[in-house]
TrEMBL record:
<comment type="similarity">
    <text>Belongs to the lyase 1 family. Adenylosuccinate lyase subfamily.</text>
</comment>
<dbReference type="InterPro" id="IPR004769">
    <property type="entry name" value="Pur_lyase"/>
</dbReference>
<keyword id="KW-0456">Lyase</keyword>
<feature type="domain" description="Adenylosuccinate lyase C-terminal">
    <location>
        <begin position="350"/>
        <end position="421"/>
    </location>
</feature>
<comment type="pathway">
    <text>Purine metabolism; IMP biosynthesis via de novo pathway; 5-amino-1-(5-phospho-D-ribosyl)imidazole-4-carboxamide from 5-amino-1-(5-phospho-D-ribosyl)imidazole-4-carboxylate: step 2/2.</text>
</comment>
<dbReference type="GO" id="GO:0005829">
    <property type="term" value="C:cytosol"/>
</dbReference>
<dbReference type="GO" id="GO:0070626">
    <property type="term" value="F:(S)-2-(5-amino-1-(5-phospho-D-ribosyl)imidazole-4-carboxamido) succinate lyase (fumarate-forming) activity"/>
</dbReference>
<dbReference type="InterPro" id="IPR020557">
    <property type="entry name" value="Fumarate_lyase_CS"/>
</dbReference>
<dbReference type="GO" id="GO:0044208">
    <property type="term" value="P:'de novo' AMP biosynthetic process"/>
</dbReference>
<comment type="pathway">
    <text>Purine metabolism; AMP biosynthesis via de novo pathway; AMP from IMP: step 2/2.</text>
</comment>
<dbReference type="InterPro" id="IPR022761">
    <property type="entry name" value="Fumarate_lyase_N"/>
</dbReference>
<dbReference type="Pfam" id="PF00206">
    <property type="entry name" value="Lyase_1"/>
</dbReference>
<protein>
    <recommendedName>
        <fullName>Adenylosuccinate lyase</fullName>
        <ecNumber>4.3.2.2</ecNumber>
    </recommendedName>
</protein>
<dbReference type="GO" id="GO:0004018">
    <property type="term" value="F:N6-(1,2-dicarboxyethyl)AMP AMP-lyase (fumarate-forming) activity"/>
</dbReference>
<dbReference type="GO" id="GO:0006189">
    <property type="term" value="P:'de novo' IMP biosynthetic process"/>
</dbReference>
<dbReference type="InterPro" id="IPR019468">
    <property type="entry name" value="AdenyloSucc_lyase_C"/>
</dbReference>
<keyword id="KW-0658">Purine biosynthesis</keyword>
Length: 430
């Protein structure tokens, strides 16, 4: 992923040098396990432990001659080990015993980073939702004015959606944080299962239950599907900010730095560029998810078709999602909210937002439904076409109505607030 959409703590996990450091860790742990079994001499183990992580430049130099990254890594690693000891490195293992076990370990760390920022996004949303629970605004369906709601209610829906994303990512982490050290076709023919058990336990990951040569790729597909769903949930937040930021609406505005400039030609512009960026990144994440599903089916016990895809799609998906969730949390935390504009939006249609309350009152007072609906609709149509006050038109038709206030729609609203406060409190306790 380009540096523009990468944060260093996530990007560093996927650097070549970090990968070789993790491969070194796996090889050393495997040698330790073999030594416990009496298969690697103690002096050889000491030499293996002392060996430095080979540089990415050296591995690349050897790979130009050998055209095989794992063999090139092992050659570079063994350059720092006496020859008599180097022969014990990678004992009984095949390439993907190393690659997939290291990958499971790295994915666990990447998931932890991602879950951390997504949890922050959830907490920021919950806090902001409680803050604006009583900030009345117009609800919209089909993009049109519907009934009054509150801005806090809108944010609460987003907070619960992100909470579900946290749960999906946690479940995906459990499935993907696994390794295998089982040999060329997964039969443990040349390696004791204890080595796998020992290495995976030391890394804090699980083991594939029935390995072929690799960890099953449905696990990785599940993770990127969860990431894509997160992206869509962030996109929903960003779209709402974009819609509410339009000049004729201006109920919210993105946080701005003092350096902000919105247009090269129009100095007045205050474009929702962060939200637009979040929407674009969600499109990338959906594309990666489809690509990763294609990786599930491999030939026989394994082929290499998944490798090139994972180096791009899976890595980029995690880097992009980490960036997107971080940017979304910053956006929500600094969002400017304009309650007066929200209230003005309710009033701008001269009372039309209260039509359902008027209809409900008529029905409760015994008016036949079709008659009541047509009467209220006729007054609404007149208000739209003539610009008259909806309530005045109803009273002129002899329809007795009470005060038209947003609070009429919020009498049972706090049942949702209690759920929201529970979510918020969970985040603070964590």
């Amino acid at each position: 992923m380009i540096s523009r959409y990468s944060l260093p703590e996530m990007a560093e996990l996927w650097s070549d040098q970090a990968r070789y450091a993790t491969w070194t860790k796996v090889e050393v742990l495997a040698s330790q396990a073999q030594a416990l079994l009496g298969r690697v001499p103690d002096d050889a183990l000491a030499d293996i432990r002392r060996a430095a992580v080979p540089s990415a430049a050296r591995v690349a130099e050897i790979e130009r001659e050998r055209d095989h990254e794992i063999l090139s890594f092992l050659a570079a690693f063994c350059e720092d080990i006496p020859e008599d000891s180097a022969r014990w490195v990678h004992l009984g293992m095949t390439s993907y015993d190393l690659v997939d076990t290291a990958l499971g370990y790295t994915l666990a760390r990447a998931c932890d980073l991602l879950i951390g920022v997504v949890t922050r996004l959830r907490n920021v949303l919950a806090d902001k939702a409680v803050e604006h629970w009583a900030t009345v605004c117009i609800g919209r369906t089909h993009g049109m004015h519907a009934e009054p709601t509150t801005f806090g209610h809108k944010l609460a829906g987003f907070a619960f959606a992100i909470d579900r994303c946290v749960k999906r990512l946690a479940a995906a982490r459990e499935e993907v944080a696994v390794g295998t050290i089982s040999g060329s076709v997964g039969t443990y023919a040349l390696i004791d299962p204890f080595v796998e058990e020992y290495v995976c336990a030391e890394l804090g990951i699980g083991a594939e239950q029935a390995p072929s040569q690799v960890v099953a790729r449905d696990r990785h597909a599940q993770l990127v599907q969860a990431v894509a769903t997160l992206g869509a949930c962030v996109e929903q937040i960003a779209i709402e900010v974009r819609l509410l930021s339009r000049s004729e609406v201006r109920e919210v505005e993105e946080p701005r730095t003092v350096a902000y400039q919105g247009s090269s030609a129009m100095p007045h512009k205050r474009n929702p560029t962060t939200s637009e960026r979040l929407v674009g990144l969600a499109r990338l994440l959906r594309g990666y998810a489809g690509t990763m599903v294609e990786n599930v089916a491999l030939w026989h016990e394994r082929d290499l078709s998944h490798s090139s895809v994972e180096r791009v799609a899976m890595v980029d998906a995690l880097i992009v999602a980490h960036y997107q969730a971080t940017a979304a949390a910053d956006l929500v935390a600094g969002l400017d909210v304009f309650p007066d504009r929200m209230r003005a939006a309710i009033d701008q249609t001269n009372g039309l937002a209260y039509s359902s309350a008027v209809l409900a009152d008529l029905l409760e007072n015994g008016t036949e439904r079709e008659h009541a609906y047509r009467a209220v609709q006729a007054a609404a149509n007149s208000a739209v076409s003539g610009g008259d006050d909806f309530g005045t038109l109803l009273r002129a038709e002899g329809i007795d109505i009470g005060p038209l206030r947003p609070e009429r729609f919020l009498v049972r609203h706090d049942v949702i607030l209690k759920r929201l406060e529970t979510l918020r409190d969970k985040g603070h306790q964590a």
